[in-house]
Write a structure and sequence with these properties.
497 residues, alpha/beta, two-stranded parallel ribbon, 49% helix, seven-stranded mixed sheet, 16 helices
């Protein structure tokens, strides 16, 4: 026992100095906003590994296809029916679907999708037809189509109602909303070697098996404890530094000091996730006294955006460790925290927002108008309250690269600790951030229209799908008036003049 204790003591003493030097160097680089480039080299190496794995998968599929060509006709169908699965789509290199999906970097194809939506239901019936957001006049003309009794008597066929029947069946099988609250799938021909990939690609060849096992050991035995250590150090620094800044009297010096502390803190936390961040149009970053709005994929969005500029945050007061962190942040800079009852009071929220924005010394306030996390493929309805505040709105588009890990937080399935564990055992967080030109509310423009206009700008820049639906459908049922409006619109299309 004494020998074991001696070995542990010597090992700890040998590792202590390098660890302290590493943390001090990390803090110094974070405070300066600099990087040695190790994470970017790491990401480039991962891409080569992923490409090697993809090539092995394609070779295996090609060999499997050649083997199947020698089997009697109907063998594949029999195997498929015996397994109770649908017939697989060809993934050979000659398959144009697979080939195109592999070429389009950043464009994801869900291999399980078998539905092509020609008629997509939206909260507003005028948005029901595919492509209507780009051709509103054409869609409105289509919606206003009516039939006379003579036309129906002469031309009506039972198939006239098939488009509505199909739209309903498609919505039941794979609707446009609930699919946005599931993990984003990778391309058909891609594999990122994560254990959560449910295709058993690691058993295709012994080389891939060795690579997969090496990646498992790297992520769980090296990266995970290292990231936890860095995260703990970052949180400890945040608590201590903001506590000390809180004693400094209100002045320009306190604002400068708080800005340095916040940037350093969030840069350390970003490094704890091996994040590789690319910022575009940095000259358009939000200015003091403004409102910054962005699409929302994960709580990490706050960390990603706060590594470049300091924000004031808005949200509900929490207890536990999160509450301690909120109080620490509030001591150093102005943030808006609401009690549970106040959050539902839209007037009180708007008034506090206006008061914050009216002070030019306050940092820009960061808001996620969707109100919930969406899976990095779409942007859903923006709440209008954030757009009732006078002043410029600074839109920001955020897009994560799912090849290195799924950044989406499905709060209905995973707790915050489970989610952070998944993030810290993924390869990395790779993200692009686009700062967009400030937008001002036009004269006579409603807050709802203003919110939709900003949402379209963010969706277009981030390559995201612009949806009309409220993200709160993640937790609640559709409003009855939505159903009534759809029924009314369908009746108009069948109405006889």
């Amino acid at each position: 026992m004494a020998l074991l204790w001696t070995i542990l003591s010597v090992s700890a003493s040998l590792l202590l100095t390098p660890c302290l030097m590493f943390l001090v160097g990390l803090m110094f680089l974070a405070s300066m906003g600099k990087s040695l480039g190790v994470r970017r080299l790491y990401v480039k190496f991962l891409l080569k590994i992923f490409e090697y794995g993809r090539e092995n998968i394609e070779i295996s599929k090609r060999q499997s296809q050649i083997k199947d060509d020698y089997e009697p006709k109907g063998t594949e169908e029999c195997k498929t029916l015996a397994n109770g699965n649908a017939k697989p789509v060809s993934d050979s290199p000659q398959d144009p679907v697979c080939e195109n999906s592999c070429r389009q970097d950043g464009v994801l194809v869900n291999s399980s999708h078998v539905i092509s939506h020609d008629l997509i239901l939206q909260p507003d019936p005028e948005q029901n037809f595919n492509g209507i957001q780009n051709d509103t006049d054409k869609a409105k003309e289509e919606l206003q189509r009516k039939s006379s009794y003579d036309t129906i008597k002469r031309d009506f066929e039972l198939s006239d109602c098939f488009e509505f029947v199909r739209a309903g069946v498609e919505a039941i099988i794979e609707d446009q909303v609930t699919s946005r609250f599931e993990a984003e799938e990778l391309r058909v021909c891609s594999w990122n070697l994560l254990t959560r990939t449910n295709r058993r690609y690691e058993f295709i060849s012994w080389r891939l098996t060795v690579i997969w096992m090496g990646g498992f050991l790297l992520r769980y035995c090296f990266l995970f404890p290292l990231r936890v250590t860095i995260c703990f150090f970052g949180l400890l620094w945040t608590l201590v530094a903001t506590f000390l800044v809180g004693f400094v009297p209100q002045s320009s010096f306190k604002r400068i000091l708080n800005n340095w502390v916040m940037l350093t803190s969030f840069r350390i936390l970003a490094r704890s996730l091996s994040s590789v961040l690319t910022y575009h149009n940095v000259e358009l970053m939000p200015k003091t006294g403004g409102v910054c709005v962005a699409n929302h994929t994960t709580p990490i969005d706050v960390v990603i955006l706060s590594t470049m500029t300091t924000f004031s945050l808005i949200g509900q007061r929490h207890g536990g460790f999160l509450g301690i962190l909120q109080r620490a942040l509030a001591r150093a800079s102005p943030h808006i925290w609401f009690e549970r009852g106040e959050v539902k009071d839209r007037t009180a929220v708007t008034q506090r927002l206006k008061k914050h924005v009216s002070d030019p010394n306050n940092p820009p306030i960061l808001i996620f108008p969707e109100g919930t996390c969406i899976n990095n493929t779409s942007v859903m309805q923006f709440k209008k309250g954030s757009f009732e505040v006078n002043g410029a709105i600074y839109p920001v588009a955020i897009k994560y690269d799912p090849r290195f890990g799924d950044a989406f937080w499905n709060s209905s399935r995973y707790s915050m600790m489970q989610y952070l564990y998944m993030m810290m055992t993924s390869w990395a967080i790779v993200c692009d951030v686009w700062y967009l030109p400030p937008v001002i509310r036009e004269e006579g423009e409603s807050s709802v229209s203003f919110a939709s206009r900003v949402k379209r700008v963010i969706a277009k820049q981030g390559g995201l799908v612009d949806l009309m639906w409220d993200g709160q459908l993640k937790r609640t049922k559709p409003k009855p008036e939505w159903k009534e409006r759809q029924q009314e619109e369908f009746s108009k299309r069948l109405k006889v003049e």
